[in-house]
Amino acid sequence: MIVLLNKYSNGGKSVKKWEESKTELEGKYFRGNYTLISDFEDFSKRLYNEFDKGERVVIGAGGDGTINFLLNQVMQMKKEERSELTMGAIGLGSSNDFHKPFSEDKYLCCKVPLKLDCENAADHNVGQIDFEDENGKWNRKYFIINCSIGIIAKANYLFNSKEKVIKWLKSKWVMGTIWYAALRTLFAAKNVPAKIKVENKKISTEVTSLSVVINPHVSGNFCFDFNINSQSDYLGVGLCERMGILARLKTIISLTRGKFTGLPKTRSWMAREIEIKPDSPTPLELDGEVYLARRIKIKLLQGILKISQ
């Protein structure tokens, strides 16, 4: 077993949570020796070395960004190698959307959510994104929870920033930091003019927010009402368009209640492929990680990974 520990996750609180959880993890879930890695730059090489030694379980200990990093490392492996791996997670992050909806029987005593049942691992969908960055270079990345452009992406960018207010508030009150980033973006962010293609349907609009989801939980307690899960035949697509401040606020409040479909100035689809072409480079969020993109192509890779339950 290989455990990737993100010591910077949750405003630096992840190490303390790890130390509090370590004895219980080793007693209940880790069998024999395991390899603990906290150096992200060294992880890729170590992953291949441990795989050659026979390790077949990789665990992300951190938040959603840690899971996204681990996912993208695994997806760089050959298909034959990747098919032998099982991914799991220990939720030491601030939001832990990958673990949602939370299950009462999948917690440590210190309320850390888990996906460590490797014996009952299940196939899990992954989203593939090819995007052209602001320098004209094409990149390929993957997501396992959701991706977005617009105010959610911009709010994630602010939440992950090193601004003094964000750093201070995150160390005191994570949910408050999420709300601060969301509300500040709500009032400041402009709509994004863009051309969108969902399957064969083409539209031109001004995007307030466009989310493409595998897991309908997008951040904190925000959730879409799509009937979708990690093994669905489609991605869920939620578009908010041409919204002013009042409409944005009403939509955010509705998302905290798990309601989206049918709201004013929204559209939703189930799709396997989506293309987005904003008029200018815009933040693109993947599982909380943010890039700048000016052309985006998204498609569903169905059941491509084994994930612990």
- The percentage helix is 25-40%
What is the rounded Rg? Answer: 19 Å
Number of strand elements: 18
Number of helices: 8
Main β-sheet: number of strands, strand sense, barrel status? 16 strands, mixed
Q: What's the pLDDT, averaged over the residues? A: 91
Q: What's the CATH architecture name of the largest domain?
A: Sandwich
Quote the CATH topology of the largest domain.
Tumour Suppressor Smad4
Stretches with pLDDT under 50, minimum 5 residues? none
Secondary-structure-based class equals: alpha+beta
Strand content is 35-45%
Number of domains: 2
Q: Could you spell the SSE succession in H and E letters? A: EHEHEHHEEEEEHHHEEEEEHEEEEE
State the separation between the terminal residues, measured CA to CA. Answer: 16 Å
Topology:
Blueprint: E1 2-5, H1 14-28, E2 35-37, H2 40-52, E3 57-62, H3 64-74, H4 79-82, E4 86-91, E5 114-115, E6 122-132, E7 138-143, E8 146-150, H5 151-159, H6 164-172, H7 174-188, E9 192-198, E10 201-213, E11 217-219, E12 222-223, E13 235-241, H8 245-256, E14 266-271, E15 273-278, E16 282-286, E17 289-293, E18 295-307
Parallel strand pairs: 1-2, 1-3, 3-4, 4-18
Antiparallel strand pairs: 4-5, 6-7, 6-18, 8-10, 8-16, 9-10, 9-15, 10-13, 11-12, 13-14, 15-18, 16-17
